[in-house]
Amino acid sequence: MARFIFASAVYLLIGLIVILPVVLVFVMAFSHGLATALATFADPDALSAIRLTVIMTVLTVAINTVFGVMAAWTLSRFRFPGRGALIVLIELPLSVSPVVGGLVWLLVFGTQGWWGAALERWGYPVMFAPPGILLATVFVTFPYVTRTLMPVMIHNGREGEDAAVLLGAGLWQILWHVTLPGARLALLSGVLLTTARAMGEFGAVSVVSGHIPGLTETIPLHIETLYNGYQTVAAFTMAGLLAIMAMLVVTARTLIERRAGARGLIA
Amino acid sequence: MSVHLDHIIRVSPQNGRPIVNDVSLTVEDGSFTALVGPSGAGKTSLLRVIAGLDGHQGGTVSIDGARVDNVNARDRNIGFVFQHYALFAHMTVAANIGFGLSIRPRRSRPGRAEIERRVAELLELMQLSGMGSRYPHELSGGQRQRVALARALATEPRVLLLDEPFGALDPVVRRQIRGWLRDLHERLGLTTILVTHDRQEATELADTIALMRHGRVVQTGTAQQLEDTPADPFVMEFTGDVIRIPGRIDRGLFVADMPDIRAFAANAADGRGEVLIRPADIRLLPDAGSAMAWLRQTRGMIGTYDFTTGTQTLRFETVIPAGAAPIIVNCALDISAGRIAQGDGWIERQETGVAQPATPQSTGP
């Protein structure tokens, strides 16, 4: 009986908080018919937002994967002074509001900031330009790969790596053939989390982007612009697109995990 | 290939205490040596120093006469079997075994066919034929262990190091694998160093035993040497059953605290002392005292006695005196075949010839 009540409560909650809003997004998007919804993508600003989002996401994931792997490996393998502080620092973006993250970059790279004016003079504007958006997104999604990878690396222990060393493997061979494959589900999980988060990031990007339609608007920013301009259908269509992209990422993750599970790779 | 350790010192990176404390040891070419001792004795640490996985702060490691202190672990060509095997879970058995060959730089890497041939050969040797395409999680403990061994042997190492390799196996498999491993050692002409806390395992497998405690090698020798002439009370207790009988030395005699134990000559200054004796060396002397010995159990010529004197009882297994009744009254004990310990060492005895002067380290044959 208790099980039934708990299960019902969970379903109710999931339905209200997760499923209903998503369904509403699509209902709103298609409220004036499919053609109206699809017309959203005829707008060059929308296409530009999609392109920028994809580029930013790919770059962010690449940067944070390389960084995350290095950080997780270092932190799980070695004991050094300040290790604890480093872990806290890496986690900082999780606890700090994204808006604060954006403001910090503005302070450093903005025209009022330390290097912003100089960079702008040399023709490399960072704020209100794609590099700023990249910085902000990297900052916000910084901890995910490290945080998912590190516990698994610690759990897997050193013995496999020691065995590889004694068999003659070098540092890169160990990382590539032993450490990463041993933690590849966690790595994948971290990468996909980073992807989902990078695609949807609003707060930090909003501060540094400058909201220039067609130039510095990602999908989330474009949605806001559309919505504030009373283009409800277009706003919800873009939101639907973002939701579909996120769901694809989550589905990919589930599928890969299931296939690995079937092959007994989750020990 | 011989391994020579000279005054090795390794201190704990956490608290700076010595884990391996001034260990010198020679492992002859082709020998099977066991590092034995209670947990925390520094056996595994010493093995990792030999392999080059952990550094050492003092002393030298030589393999075949050449110092390897500055040689990286990856270049020492040492086979190592880890306690929990450390197989690569995401690789097939064949990929595990072939790993050491397939990661070599292109110049020295054997061809794919050659690696496959070598892997098949090792699978055959390890009695794992046909299992090459399985994953480690699909194997039993004994099979995993043999895969680990095959992987360690694939690169034709100079020395094979085994860290508690039987710990995770059930007793039946353990016994089988022991005999088989000893066989393999002979057949391949390996130089093997085994870490174990199991005295019997060491006795059964190794020609030479190095008994460790508190980071030091207490005694080196054959199992028989360690049992017959233990360097100190710890070695004696570790190598077999021991009965401890406290007492004192009084004007050249050892006098036990218990009554009805015959005093015997002890050539030492007066003071406290304790006799350590193998139960089988205890002799019951009928009609020589006022104690009672009650035979609880017999096994051939050996009996389990409860020896009671006053309120104290000793239980031990020893030879049944000829023609003795199951309950021997008015008896006493002769423990003069034992050794007298004072602190961590022996008190020397000269007159009986049973005990020899204690030497800190007697060398193996």
Automatic annotation (TrEMBL), chain A:
Q: Does the keyword Membrane apply?
A: yes
* Gene, per the UniProt record: cysW
The protein in question is named Sulfate transport system permease protein CysW
Molecular function terms from GO: ABC-type sulfate transporter activity
Q: Which GO terms describe its cellular component?
A: plasma membrane
Which species does this protein come from? Komagataeibacter saccharivorans
Q: Where does the UniProt annotation locate this protein?
A: Cell membrane
Membrane topology, as annotated, equals: Multi-pass membrane protein
**Keywords noted in UniProt:** Membrane, Plasmid, Sulfate transport, Transmembrane, Transmembrane helix, Transport
Function summary: Part of the ABC transporter complex CysAWTP (TC 3.A.1.6.1) involved in sulfate/thiosulfate import. Probably responsible for the translocation of the substrate across the membrane.
Question: Which SUPFAM superfamilies does the entry link to?
Answer: MetI-like
Q: Which InterPro entries match?
A: MetI-like, MetI-like_sf, Sulph_transpt2
Record text on subunit structure and interactions? The complex is composed of two ATP-binding proteins (CysA), two transmembrane proteins (CysT and CysW) and a solute-binding protein (CysP).
Q: Which PROSITE patterns match?
A: ABC_TM1
From TrEMBL, chain B:
- Protein name (Swiss-Prot/TrEMBL): Sulfate/thiosulfate import ATP-binding protein CysA
ABC transporter domain location, by residue? 3-239
Which Gene Ontology molecular-function terms are recorded? ATP binding; ATP hydrolysis activity
The gene from which this protein is expressed is: cysA
What is one GO biological process annotated to this record? quaternary ammonium group transport
Which InterPro entries does this chain map to? Answer: AAA+_ATPase, ABC_SmlMolc_Importer, ABC_transporter-like_ATP-bd, ABC_transporter-like_CS, P-loop_NTPase
Keyword Hydrolase found: yes
Q: What class of enzyme is it?
A: hydrolase
Q: What is its EC number?
A: 3.6.3.25
Gene3D superfamilies associated with the record: P-loop containing nucleotide triphosphate hydrolases (3.40.50.300)
Tell me which UniProt keywords the record has, alphabetically.
ATP-binding, Hydrolase, Nucleotide-binding, Plasmid, Transport
